[in-house]
Design brief:
Number of helices: 12
Strand order of the largest sheet: 2-1-3-4-5
Distance between the termini: 38 Å
Largest sheet: 5 strands, mixed
Shape: elongated
Number of strands: 5
Number of domains: 2
Strand content: 5-15%
Length: 331
């Protein structure tokens, strides 16, 4: 008798899932989208071991045909020199004035310099730079906190509202004088303080034993995380505006969060990646939040330097809230 009841519940849940064609479709399509996206972004031969920035026309042959070296064009010489100082770039070449920059303490830079001197482009003049090495953990911490903000905002608000709608909670709230914009604003404020509190604990807690680099203002850093969190929460509200299926909501949230996590520079830099991948990354709010946070932490950037990223986050937030409020339904 117990097995019969168990099988009845099992069969009922299967029917519920199979009848929800939207959710079933996401479960089937989403893995294909992930595989196709990563195949486009990261295939094409062995990964390069070295990164060389080229300022000016890109020559052909000689040193510039070295295998396992990624050569990519740079537009701003001054900011790229800083990356050489901090070991984020192995070598920088100015092909217009026949000079190059290398960090005197970089092992990769040392070997690339030897290869350059043994190539037909041996006439380049050396410009030595030095600086504190930015460890991977120094570079990573902003991405990890940004990723945590993203998941907390999207799933902590979007998924919960869908569950409220499915369980009839929103239907009861509809009978009150509460408007949609008031409800959505309360959701943003409620989740925001919790996200920022967790971010503060992670930031200062990890610093006790990691001692990561911090050249900018903590106040500005938390403003960046606050703007990013509000934008992510607004995006979650937009996704949950009309959906009543938890499975479909989870599929949509996965469709947004996973590409954002891998293409917004959380784990690795997108410098030298496919230009289309870089353009796609600009459409994600997580990209702008992490870029601004790293600029504050690693470059000591002020408000003026991160204002473009904050402006994009603000514009996205306003757009998400307006559209989400217009599409929102209680039932």
């Amino acid at each position: 008798m117990m097995l019969k009841r168990l099988f009845a519940v099992f069969w009922a849940r299967n029917k519920e899932f199979l009848r929800d064609r939207a959710a079933m479709g996401w479960n089937l399509i989403f893995p294909f989208l992930i595989v196709a996206g990563f195949a486009f972004a990261f295939t094409g031969g062995p990964a390069p071991m070295y990164k060389v920035g080229v300022y000016g026309p890109m020559p052909k042959g000689g040193f510039f045909a070295t295998d396992y070296v990624k050569f990519f064009a740079v537009k701003n010489l001054d900011t790229t020199i800083v990356k050489v100082e901090r070991h984020q770039l192995d070598l920088l070449l100015d092909t217009t004035h026949q000079r190059y920059w290398v960090n005197s303490k970089s092992p990769h830079g040392y070997f690339l310099e030897k290869l350059l001197h043994d190539s037909p482009q041996a006439g380049y003049r050396k410009q030595v730079v030095s600086g504190r090495q930015i460890r991977y953990v120094d570079w990573l911490i902003a991405g990890v906190i940004g990723m945590n903000v993203m998941f907390s905002a999207l799933y902590g608000v979007g998924y919960v509202i869908v569950r409220y709608r499915k369980n009839g909670v929103l239907k009861r709230l509809k009978a009150t004088p509460l408007s949609a914009i008031e409800f959505l604003t309360a959701q943003v404020a409620s989740r925001l303080w919790l996200i920022l509190a967790v971010a503060a604990v992670v930031l200062f807690g990890t610093n006790l034993f990691v001692h990561f680099a911090m050249y900018g203002s903590y106040l500005l850093l938390f403003l960046v995380f606050a703007m990013g969190a509000i934008c992510m929460i607004s995006m979650g509200l937009l996704i949950a505006a009309r959906i009543a299926s938890e499975e479909l909501a989870e599929g949509l949230l996965n469709l947004i969060s996973w590409p954002m996590m891998f293409l917004s520079g959380v784990w690795f830099s997108l410098e030298g990646a496919n230009p289309w991948v870089q353009k796609l990354a600009e459409a994600f709010p997580l990209t702008h939040m992490i870029t601004a946070a790293r600029a504050v932490m690693l470059d000591g950037a002020g408000f003026a330097q991160v204002a473009p990223q904050l402006g994009v986050l603000l514009a996205m937030t306003v757009g998400f809230l307006i559209v989400g409020a217009a599409l929102f339904r209680w039932e």
